[in-house]
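[audit] Reproducing an earlier prediction to check determinism. Same input, same settings, fresh worker. If the tokens differ from the archived copy the diff job will pick it up downstream; this log only records the rerun itself.
[audit] input (562 residues):
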Amino acid sequence: MQQDVSVKDQPQVPSGPERPLLKVRDLEVAFGEEPVLHGVSFNLRRGDRVAIVGQSGSGKSTTVAAILGLLPGTGRITGGSIEVEGHDLAGASEEQMRRFRGRRIGLVPQDPMSNLNPSMKVGAQIADALAAAGHRGKANLRRRAVALMAEAGIPDADRRYGQYPHEFSGGMRQRVLIAISLAGEPDLLIADEPTSALDVTVQRQILDHLQTLVEARGTSLLFITHDLGVAADRTDRIIVMADGRVVEAGSPQEILFEPKEDYTRRLVGAAPSVLASVPDVAPDQPVPAPADPSSDSSGRTGPPILQVRDLVKDFRLRGQRGGTVRAVSGVSFDVGRGSTTAVVGESGSGKTTVARIILGLEEASSGEALIDSRSITSSRGRTRRALRRKVQPVFQDPYGSLDPTYSIERLIDEPLRVFRVGDRAARRARVAQLLDHVALPRAVAQRRPNELSGGQRQRVAIARALALEPELLICDEAVSALDVLVQEQVLELLAELQDRLSLSYLFITHDLAVVRQIAHHVVVMKSGTVVEEGTVDKVFSSPDAEYTKELLGAIPGAVFAH
């Protein structure tokens, strides 16, 4: 069915008939002999801001790749048309596509570190994009590149022109990609998950700036995301995709509050960043939170499985004799037995460094962390080894933390082999039990990580973490790389395991919407220090610190929670 998703009531769009800037009709795409897009249709007019949303595998990025003529591998367009102001790109040659890419259609990709050359200065990379768009002259290229960097919100652009990508923060690298995408002054800008790896405050800054640039230039925006909150905040129309098809389209209000399709309802229901992050209660009422199995009448968790006391970590600066930077400064908090404490803050706040110290992967400069009242920071030898069995990690990227050459069985039983637990038959039985725990079929035991989905890989990571029967799991951004439906499944699994196995969690995250769903207690960190802590009720309903208020205010989609 054809979906017209042009925005008809924007003041910059003139009334009367107008040829769409982008017109996709009955688009079919296949990889090899397998069809993956099925009759995708939509319009985009000048000044439109449209989002395509859906879970991983829904066809969002494949649609973008087809529009840009960048389908990977055996991917090919098998039917339909892609018109840009009357020019059909579906059958265009590579030479013809080069005249459209960059100049008529710009792309802001997802991962700046994968899309920027680490050995090339950022200014030179922007200059290359300008040269491809037809600009000439070394001095002119530099001048235009510096201007684009400044326009994209990079401070001190003239100096930073000569720096490398690793010298930029994640947010600044994303701004470099925006500058590159604007080099050809495109009519249409496609932003493919441009902020999914960024903290909420940095995400808001990037999206604010991108919106300002789009409005100032009159550029159309096609926004690809699995975050319905971002789509609701930043676009005027939303296209919902599933299994390579457009299943629904409408305004943010219609999609969030009057969805017609079951899939859209599930997508909205699974998105804590849209609806669960801001409770529908009066300001003076407490915010409902998960029941805390170990809280006392004051709301504090106890008795603690983990105690962190005055933790300090200094890192030595390279190339500076005696120079150090303080990453963690006097951090103290507890994790109650059988409960979840979330540590939140932006990148660079020190939260992951704290987690690494607790895991014994970093040495504290001073202070200590105690597991069951025994210091893991000062212990050595057998004592430390015994304590490390009690606390296990679940990292952000299961594909990066799981050896791709190992079978799932070998990955899960590796901690058992390292700690010399059981014989081969006992370990195999334990792996089968752990697969049951995380709701994976036992048949996956002989498969490899690349044969599993992202959600299944994260379940394997959780099973591996549970192998030694720990009392505390440290989940470091454990769901931030997952789409909302898979994220919901993993969070439900963690809650079920906590209830069934009396597990305690230290949940490291920048996503307060997820915290709202899973945590009992919250520790807010900024620049290595704790700026606020308390129950979820207290922090969400009446935060004390301005920084906490800023984090809460930056949750995408919060305005639609009421």
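[audit] rerun output stored. Observation attached for the diff report: The chain has a mean pLDDT of 85.
[audit] end
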